[in-house]
Automatic annotation (TrEMBL):
Record lineage: Eukaryota, Haptista, Haptophyta, Prymnesiophyceae, Isochrysidales
Keywords: ATP-binding, Nucleotide-binding
InterPro entries named among the record's database cross-references: 6Pfruct_kin, 6Phosfructo_kin, His_Pase_superF_clade-1, His_PPase_superfam, P-loop_NTPase
Biological process according to GO: fructose 2,6-bisphosphate metabolic process; fructose metabolic process
Domain 6-phosphofructo-2-kinase: 19-238
Domain of life: Eukaryota
Name the UniProt record assigns to this protein: 6-phosphofructo-2-kinase domain-containing protein
A GO CC term attached to the entry: cytosol
Molecular-function annotations in GO: 6-phosphofructo-2-kinase activity; ATP binding; fructose-2,6-bisphosphate 2-phosphatase activity
Length: 424
């Protein structure tokens, strides 16, 4: 029989809290900010009120307008991160806690999910974060819970890539050449390593990721963390590959003349643009998508997977009227007898995880609205704002008969840009 204490613990941890802090943990150049930005994009796309609070940005704001002597004390040089320097250590703690206060103020009365992007590299700091969250909960606002997300990296190749990405992107190193920046970063890491403490079970809920690969350890993680966040984190990697979106006509057999023309053009375009790499093709289960996926994959190095989640949005009892309302619908508003954008995103979530996990280029063969919803995630825009055909040139390119492909190109840090290809 299960002990009552275990059941009580599970009962306490399973419900979703009104306000959730996802606090990163890790040495510099371990991909914490990469994880934070990917998580924020995913959670926002899923309909959660989400924001990132970065301690490094708070530190850089702190030095703006300060005398030069103080700027050196709270600046970006490696010496500022020396744990044996009591004054610098106190300043770092003050900056971190100021960032946490901004985060808690952002929760207000409505809560949400806040990502506390900082090193949080020792048990004392993490205990202070948990204690402050508990204090905020007792003041009558939303109940605040904390989950630590630790990024552990001991793979030399991954670490070197992370370090290069950091010195090229961080404002901390903008005044240094690359070699000097790397040297300063290595010294900063050494200072942190001297006092680093990994998260333990006694500290509460956490997820540990190892080398941004498939190895993970989780403790006291239930509810939405286990349903969505943990699988999403497992899908992440730093490999770069494009994602192609192509909209098809729902319900067509694939034999209509204009559909056959598009399929032929798409097949030629895919083969010309993916000569040196395998391609993963994800299609809806509707006939036009299956027929097109079959032809695109014929004779090539393609893996084809069908997903019912990619089927067209159910527009309800009056599809014509619903199409006219697309640009005015809110995220949670449901078409009469049909689905909402939130329903669509929910069933697209497994598709998105498969796209994120893929190391190869991905071609999505779906219909205009699922394609637009996926595009919203990769470009970090609100789903409801980009579902109407007139919302952007890319949304217009994702009309079912446009004969276009929208290419999403990876950029440093995990974001994407887009390019529209007209197939003629």
């Amino acid at each position: 029989m299960t002990p009552p204490a275990i059941l009580a613990s599970r009962s306490y941890l399973t419900p979703d809290s009104q306000a959730l802090i996802l606090a990163t943990v890790g040495l510099p150049a371990r991909g914490k900010s990469f994880i934070a930005h990917k998580l924020a994009a995913f959670l926002s796309w899923s309909g959660h009120r989400t924001n990132i609070f970065n301690a490094g940005q708070t530190r850089r704001r702190t030095i703006t307008g300060e005398p030069e002597a103080k700027m050196e004390r709270v600046g970006s040089a490696a010496s500022f991160f020396d744990s044996s320097d009591a004054e610098a250590k106190a300043l770092r703690e003050q900056i971190a806690m100021n960032t946490l206060e901004e985060l808690l103020e952002w929760f207000g009365e409505v809560g949400g999910i806040a990502i506390f992007d900082a090193t949080n590299s020792n048990a004392k700091r993490r205990a202070a974060v948990v204690q402050r969250a508990e204090e905020a909960s007792r003041k009558g606002g939303p109940q605040v819970s904390v989950v630590f997300i630790e990024s552990v990296c001991d793979d030399a190749n991954v670490l070197e890539a992370n370090m290069l990405a950091k010195v090229r992107a961080s404002p901390d190193f903008s005044s240094l050449d690359e070699e000097a920046a790397l040297d300063d970063l290595r010294k900063r890491i050494a200072h942190y390593e001297a006092a680093y403490e990994t998260v333990s079970d006694a500290e509460g809920a956490y997820i540990k990721l190892y080398n941004l690969s498939s190895k993970v350890t989780a403790n006291q993680v239930f509810g939405r963390m286990s349903k969505s966040v943990l699988p999403f984190l497992l899908s992440l990697h730093v490999g770069e590959r494009p994602v192609y979106l192509a909209a098809l006509i729902p319900g067509m057999s694939g034999r209509a003349s204009h559909d056959s023309v598009f399929t032929s053009r798409l097949t030629d375009w895919v083969r010309a643009n993916t000569k040196t790499r395998s391609l993963r093709v994800l299609s809806s289960t509707q006939p036009a998508a299956i027929a097109t996926a079959t032809q695109v994959a014929a004779g090539g190095s393609c893996v084809v997977t069908q997903h019912s989640g990619l089927n067209s949005l159910d527009l309800g009892v009056n599809p014509t009227e619903s199409l006219e309302m697309l640009s005015r619908m809110g995220f949670h508003e449901r078409f009469d007898g049909g689905e909402s954008f939130a329903d669509l995103v929910r069933r697209l979530e497994p598709v998105l995880l498969e796209i994120e996990a893929s190391m190869d280029p991905v071609l999505v063969l779906s219909h205009s609205l699922p394609c637009r919803a996926l595009r919203a995630y990769f470009l970090g825009i609100e789903v409801a704002s980009c579902m109407g055909a007139a919302s952007s040139s890319a949304a217009l390119a994702l009309v079912n008969d446009s004969h276009s492909v929208v290419e999403l190109k990876p950029r440093m840090g995990g974001s994407f840009s887009e390019e529209i290809h007209k197939l003629e």
